[in-house]
Amino acid sequence: MANSVHVKEVIVIKPSEPTPSRVLSLSALDSQLFLRFTVEYLFVFKARPGLDQSVITARVKAALAKILVPYYPLAGRVRAKLDGSSLEVVCRAQGAVFIEAVSDHTINDFDKAPRLLGSEVEMPR
């Protein structure tokens, strides 16, 4: 399959240590309807020859779990307040989604993010 992406694993990484359990109100600017969208990141790493990819993946997961401690709101969930006036972040250490994937694309193919991977993506079963 040319230029395919195979998703190896989709998991939720939780903070490595206990974090404050609270609800944080977002500002009026953060709660504007026209600003309500999901931000998705694609981090691409070029593998070094001879390195064990499972060790690298484990390091990235551990680093994410560690950084979610001081930046605990990133492990929370955004919701509308009950009265609908604004948004808030429920901080209960729910975690961040981590997706591990491999591809036959080259690193140069990611100079610009793809608009849609569509049917090229194989999800784990």
UniProtKB/TrEMBL annotation:
> What is the superkingdom listed in this entry's lineage?
Eukaryota
Classification via Gene3D superfamilies: Chloramphenicol acetyltransferase-like domain
Q: What are the recorded GO MF terms, alphabetically?
A: acyltransferase activity
Q: Which UniProt keywords apply?
A: Acyltransferase, Transferase
Sequence similarity: Belongs to the plant acyltransferase family.
Under what name is this protein listed? Answer: Uncharacterized protein
User: Which species expresses this protein natively?
Assistant: Salix viminalis
Q: What is the lineage of its organism?
A: Eukaryota, Viridiplantae, Streptophyta, Embryophyta, Tracheophyta
